[in-house]
Each structure stands twice: as structure tokens, then as C-alpha cells.
Amino acid sequence: MKPVLALVGRPNVGKSTLFNRLTKTRDAIVADFAGLTRDRHYGNAKHGKLEFIVIDTGGFEPTAESGIYMEMAKQTRQAVAEADVVVFVVDARGGLTAQDHDIAKYLRKLGKPTVLTANKAEGMTDGVQLTEFYELGLGEVHPVSAAHGQGIRSLLEVAFESIGMSEDDDTEEDHDPTVIKLAVAGRPNVGKSTLINTWLGEERLVAFDLPGTTRDAITVPFERGGQKFELIDTAGLRRKGKVFEAIEKFSVVKTLQAIESANVVLLLLDATQGVTDQDAHIAGYILESGRAVVLALNKWDAVDAYQREQLQRQIETRLAFLKFAKLHFISAIKRQGLGPVWGAIAEAHRSATVKMSTPVLTRLLLEAVQFQQPKRAGMFRPKLRYAHQGGMNPPVIVVHGNSLEHVTESYKRFLEGRFRKEFNLVGTPLRIEMKTSKNPYTDKE
């Protein structure tokens, strides 16, 4: 399972800049004023072979008793509860403040592995300016510059060393390839636990008409038709601004970890609630993780013909990026429509782990080019020469040739359609990578 690292500190010390540096994204908004980040923000990062989840938090005021700062403090406390290691960020140029002392006192009480890092320390070579931060009683001060990327590697080495891990650790778990790991994901109260109980034929998981009954990802072994499964019932993913109760502190990160570790994800939607932005958010995370996916619309028996028509339109528009996934209409509580779902799960898993031979891929590629050539870019037209498989779960097809950086996204979608049709790929993302051959004459005079 991926370890979790939380960034904590008072406002405007550079936590979001550090988050963007670690995740190699610009997902967290950065500006030179305090209090911009309010909700928790999750991202994937990598340190050598070690993959981990990093959480960005808003400015932490442990003593806040009302208003937005109290809610931000709740968010930060939950991030700390979810984390394996905490990185406490202070401002090397702004110096030590009373708020830093309050945060340090809170972290010392928890006793969780904590690394103290002084951001904005570029140019501070002698370290004399950082001595005041030793007052916080959290050990060594690690100077970094998130904006310039200085000291980040050393910081991560110390952080993961504190929990007995290093950059050489591989976070992928050893897993029996004959067992399909199936995660059931969705918003709170869509019927995930009810569905698994129906499959198992017993009240194995607590199912109750209250959002957020499941607090952790629960794994249950299951066998059907000779095929072994591991069913993972995930806690409901709420909008980040709604995750306040301490009892729900593990919900988000455990769900993200469950999706990452699954072979296939069953995304459960609620027919009575429609397709929401949160459903699209979860679907986007599944797609980003490269997991095979099956869509199931639960509580289908509770809606009339007009609502059913509206639901199908919503799915076509809001979840258009999952058009490769099969959609099933079910009622978990009445055991309706569950049989075909298993067929779709098996088909999605087969598609995600299919082996594609290089001669067949190359033939398909050349036939596609003969049917429709890629668009010319200036004087040159991309030349696609051959293709081979570069990975599974999700399938990756690597195309080699010349000037491939000019291949458009629409042409990649055209190629994807040809490959999908030939190998009957259903329920899995398909990634196409372009690798341009180096011109042997570029280094010659």
C-alpha cells in the first residue's frame, strides 16, 4: 500500500508550492497571500521506486474555535490522522512565530513521525538563521526551497527513513494473478455494502441508510464459477469540503489506495440522485489510475421512465470519458440485474491483461495509416513505422517512427478505435505512447 505524507504548517509558508514540486503538477493553486488553500488536496508522487500519496492542507491554527479557520483546522487534523509521516513546514525567512509553537505542540502530543522543514531557505548556506526553529522540539531542521527544488530529495529520504522505508522500496504488492481484486467505489450511501452483502448472501458488512457508514476499505474473499475474487468495499468518497467528522478521517485516502490496488473497479451510481460532479470526480480518478472499470446504476427499480431517460443522458454527457465501460442497471436490495455485471467484470479484466503480439499491432498500425495518414506538420508528415505492447493493466501500445511529436490527439483516438476493435477491448483504458527515433545525422557536421 502506498505510504501517505501530509504537509502541515501555518498559512503562506509554501505548502502548496512543495505539493506541486512533489507531485510534478500545478494542481494546487499558488499565490503570494495567506489562506488560499482551505480543503485537503491529494496527489500522487514518486521518490525513486517508492510511490506515495501526498496531502496538501490549508493554514493550520490548532487553537481556532470558530469560522473558516476552525473548519480548516479540522481538515488538517484529518490529514494528519490519515498520514504515515507528517512534514511540518515553517518559513525560513519569516522566522519562528507563536502559531508555529502551537502546531509543534499539537504534533508532539500525537507522537506521529514528523519531519521539520524550513522552506524558502535558498541562499542560507551557513544554517545560522535556522537555529531558532530548534526551539520547537522536533529535532533536526531540514532546509529546502520548494520554488527552486533545493533539498527536496534529502527531505524525502529523511521522511521515509522515519517510517522504515526508502526510495528503493517497491510499493506494488505481491498478488496472486489468478485472483481478481474488485473494488466497489462510489459516493456515500449508493449501496456499496448492500451490493456486496447480496453477493455474499450474508450481512458481512454494516449496511445502514446513513451516508458514511463504512469508514475503511474492507477486503472480503469470494469465489464465483471457479474464479476467485477479493471484494474491496470502499468508504464513500465525499466532496473534500464535506469531510469533517473525525470518525471519517480514513475514508478518502483508503478509497484512493483501494482503487490503486484493484484490478477492476465497479463504479456504483445512485439512480435516485442522478450523476453528480462527485461521481465524475471518482470516475476521473479511476481513469487516471488506469484501472479497468464497470459502471452500475443502483436503485434502478426506484425511478420512473422519465427519470431513467434523464439518467442515461447524464451518463452520456458527464461520464463521456468512460464510454469504453459497460453500463448495467441493477437493484442490489432486490437482486435484479446482478448476473450480467459479473460477465462485464470478467471481460474488463481480460481486456486489461490482454497480450497483443507485435506483428499484429504493426499490421493494424500500417493498415490504419494506409486508410488515413496523420496530419502534416509544416514540411513534415509523421511517419509511423511499427508498434508493440508496452504494458498491461492498463494496456499500453508504443508506436515508433519519425516526427511523432506532431501526431494529434484526434489521430491517437483514431488509432485507439482500430486497436480496440481488433482486440475487443472493453472496460479498460488504452494508452498509446509515441516514440520518435533519433536522427543519426543530427550530431554530424
From TrEMBL:
Signal peptide start and end residues: none
Domain EngA-type G: residue ranges: 3-167, 180-353
One GO biological process term: ribosome biogenesis
Keywords: GTP-binding, Nucleotide-binding, Repeat, Ribosome biogenesis
Annotated InterPro entries: G_ENGA, GTP-bd, GTPase_Der, KH_dom-like, KH_dom-like_a/b, P-loop_NTPase, Small_GTP-bd
Binding site for GTP 1: 9-16, 56-60, 119-122
Protein name, as recorded: GTPase Der
